[in-house]
Amino acid sequence: MSAIEHPLPFASWESRGFWEGAGRGELVLQRCQTCGLVQHRPRGVCAHCLDGSTLVHFAASGLGKIYSFTVTEQNQAKGFAEACPYVMAYVDLDEGPRMLTVVVDCDPDNVAIGAQVTVDYVSQTRDDAEMFAIPVFRLS
Amino acid sequence: MTKNAFPRGAAIAGVYEHPSRFSPNKTEFQIMAESAKGALDDAGLQRTDVDGLFGASMSMGMMGIVDLAEYLDLYPDYLDGTNIGGSSFVAHVTHAAAAVNAGLCQVALVLYGSTAASNSMAIGTGGTGGSRNPDAAFSAPYGMTTVGSYATYANLHMATYGTTSEQLAEIAVTMRQHAGLNPLAKMRNPITVDDVLQSRMISRPLHLLDCCIISDGGGAVVVTSLERARDLAKPPVQLLGCGEAVQHQGVGYSDILTIAAKQSGARAFEMAGVKHSDIDLAMIYDSFTITVLATLENLGFCPSGEGGNFVSNGGISLGGTLPVNPDGGGLSSNHPGMRGIFLVIEAVKQLRQECDARQVPNAELALAHGTGGTIGDKHSGATLILGVDR
Fold first, then answer.
1. What does R_g of chain B's alpha carbons equal in angstroms?
2. DSSP code, position B324
3. B10-120+212-388 has which CATH code?
4. Residue A41: is the preceding peptide bond cis (ω within 30°)?
5. B248 touches chain A (CB under 8 A)
6. Does chain A have fewer CB atoms within 10 Å around its N or its C terminus?
7. Which residues are CB-neighbours of B328 under 8 A, at least 6 positions away?
8. How confident is the model over B188-224, as pLDDT tens digits?
């Protein structure tokens, strides 16, 4: 068992706020200042207003609790095969929306639905030697 | 009676399940063409009668339906290459009925073919890799797999309702029992609840035997007007109700225990004007054991949280409260990646009383529900209620 080698996320201009935030050590969400919706995954518009003119990015607390999870014991994809078993989880963020993530550095038997978790960042090096960061979670 | 009489007047006139489970020497389109011949022969129709072409597969992309028309040298008046995952073919039957009822085509052919097994595809555990799709950028880095997504559903269901691995295993055991009665089924040796629980863990709480098999295969369905079907070779099977729906993460707030079947099923039942207790058998997409439990609850065959009891003690066996997948399903008969077409084919054969040892006695009303994509994440659902002609 070794650490996950996260595949490089492909950031579009719609999602770059999230990925650039991760590089700064911030968990970035979007809020629509017209209707108040906090949405994840990021979009170029507020999904409810269909308008992006009042959409702002903000740094979330990085706190949340596990909505559900699985201990993955088999995944043939590169970067994950050697990392099994790993904990893939949906985390309900304190700001509202849910995000898919992994819970790292834990005994899988200690992970439970409802457990409090805190964001952390894993740095990976791209083929072109640029660093990028992936938000992951740890049990609080 | 019926609030919406849309599907009345359309019928399934012919079906064919490709017998192959491993076809390393065939292509997808070849399997579709052989299936087309089978279904047209079944209906007593010719290739040249087809004026509506519907189809999907795991490799058909943009223009795929046009490629298929070329392969079959067909020049249809109506084309539909809708691909919403494994439920596509259930939805195609609805779309075909709508097209027939609107007079846009008279004989609609729905096709599927796959060589998933001979291509050694890792459907459930292949992960999503480093996709360039911006949306996948939020799942690929986290090691999402198909089975992993269903496993998050199963874990949440267990935590919420106390559902057990033993109860899920009962579903796999029942499907294997049914497969033993189906000469075409790939996996026919009986298994026990312990066999399921002791099989390798893939993604907790789902074991290897909680997962569908991977096979090659394909099939075809012919949809036409009830009037025309009455003059053809086999007794028509009527469309009585239908529904389609999606469920997804939304903007991050969805209740993942509520799946698309809730919406599509309610619509199909309302349209058909029948009760759950009227249904003689259900064909439920069984990508995983949990898929069956989730679908039965969301279709309303039992209350939420009661699925574990419903599937236990032979509840979904032949002779049980609601026989599910008498063919052995994707868990034991065949699963070439997009199983929806077999749900329709088996339902039709059952309603025509053609199923020998696995026949549900005097079946008059069947429900088929396909799921496409992944429960726990984003998916589609399509429901059909089918009945004998009377």
1. 19
2. B
3. 3.40.47.10
4. yes
5. no
6. N
7. B175, B176, B178, B179, B180, B181, B182, B185, B187, B188
8. 999 999 999 999 999 999 999 999 999 989 999 999 9
